[in-house]
């Protein structure tokens, strides 16, 4: 199923004014469970970087995590890169209007060609690695781009049903994914081989989160792929489904999961 065209249409709808973009970020923060888990991890990282820090949002998409980090510490310098020039131009326009262009820069970049050396204190990569075939090259690039003592944080699907793939006969829910998900052993091994240490990986999207994902993402995307008429129906759908998804997200963020369809991974240089 093609996911990017739907994302772009939704992004264009919210790309006009500052208010609309901020409202879009607010909705993403509430709706997307991965944003809950990333937000929790970012708070821990913020406590370790109370002063100046240079940060890379690697695969920034709409820039919602760049926006969040820009508000967490006014001393942080953030570069948001994405391979899609439409994302970059939209992010540039927003952060310029928001008066943050002095400490937030947005560039179009291919992470397989990232060549910076010991530049960043922290690299964030959310729902990116499942789109990149040569992931080991990117992990090496991340390692080289971090300063000694720097931290990498990755959110990505797991092999326990990530991309809605539960057995060898299933097809990924998202056509743009080049892999269905990582096992903890696989991603830990690849990061270790790239030079990272103190690698910490845990499951997200346990049973509550998986149900929430179906309610808040899978079913709406399937409807929008079926017919544009569902853009009119979607607000009423969320009016009913969102309270249940919200409660499930709370349970997922509070629980420790023995298995889950997502992974949150941090590693030190």
Please specify the SSE layout and strand pairing.
Elements: H1 4-13, H2 18-31, H3 33-48, E1 53-58, H4 64-72, E2 76-82, H5 85-97, E3 104-108, E4 120-126, H6 135-145, E5 146-157, H7 184-193, E6 197-204, H8 207-226, H9 230-254, E7 262-268
Helix pairs in contact: 3-4, 8-9
Describe the structure.
This protein has 269 residues and is an alpha/beta fold. The model has no long low-confidence stretch (mean pLDDT 89). Helix 3 (33-48) runs parallel beside helix 4 (64-72) and helix 8 (207-226) runs antiparallel to helix 9. It has one domain: Vaccinia Virus protein VP39 (Rossmann fold). Strand 1 (53-58), helix 4 and strand 2 form a beta-alpha-beta unit. 48% of the residues lie in helices and 19% in strands. The protein is globular. The termini are far apart. A seven-stranded mixed sheet has the order 3-2-1-4-5-7-6, with helices on both faces. It is built from nine helices and seven strands; from the N terminus they run αααβαβαββαβαβααβ.
Q: List low-pLDDT spans.
A: none
Strand order of the largest sheet: 3-2-1-4-5-7-6
From the structure provided, what is the oligomeric state, counting identical versus distinct chains? single chain
What is the number of helices? 9
| Element-by-element helix/strand order | HHHEHEHEEHEHEHHE
The span between the termini is 37 Å
Give a quick account of the main beta sheet: strands, pairing sense, barrel closure.
7 strands, mixed
Task: Using the coordinates above, name the CATH class.
Answer: Alpha Beta
Proportion of beta-strand residues: 15-25%
Structural class, from helix and strand content? Answer: alpha/beta
Overall 3D shape: globular
Q: Using the CA coordinates, give the radius of gyration.
A: 18 Å
According to CATH, the fold-level topology is Rossmann fold
């Amino acid at each position: 199923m093609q996911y990017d065209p739907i994302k772009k249409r939704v992004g264009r709808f919210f790309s006009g004014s500052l208010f609309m973009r901020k409202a879009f970020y607010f909705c993403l923060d509430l709706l997307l469970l991965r944003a809950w888990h990333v937000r929790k991890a970012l708070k821990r990282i913020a406590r370790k970087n109370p002063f100046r820090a240079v940060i890379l949002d690697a695969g920034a998409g709409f820039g919602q995590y760049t926006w969040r980090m820009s508000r967490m510490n006014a001393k942080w310098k953030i570069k948001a890169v994405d391979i899609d020039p439409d994302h970059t131009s939209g992010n540039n326009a927003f952060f310029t209007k928001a008066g943050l262009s002095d400490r937030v820069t947005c560039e179009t970049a291919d992470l397989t060609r990232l060549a910076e050396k010991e530049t960043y204190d922290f690299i964030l990569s959310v729902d990116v690695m499942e789109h990149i075939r040569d992931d080991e090259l990117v992990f090496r690039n991340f390692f080289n781009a971090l300063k000694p003592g720097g931290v990498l944080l990755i959110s990505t699907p797991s092999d326990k049903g990530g991309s809605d793939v539960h057995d060898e006969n299933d097809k990924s829910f998202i056509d743009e994914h080049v892999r269905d998900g990582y096992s903890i052993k696989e991603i830990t091994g690849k990061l270790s081989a790239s030079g990272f240490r103190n690698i910490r990986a845990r499951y997200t999207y346990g049973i509550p989160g998986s149900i929430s994902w179906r309610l808040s993402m899978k079913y709406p995307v399937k409807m929008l792929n079926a017919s544009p008429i569902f853009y009119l129906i979607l607000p009423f759908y969320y009016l009913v489904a969102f309270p249940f998804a919200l409660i499930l997200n709370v349970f997922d963020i509070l629980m420790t999961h023995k298995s889950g369809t997502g992974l949150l991974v941090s590693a030190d240089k």
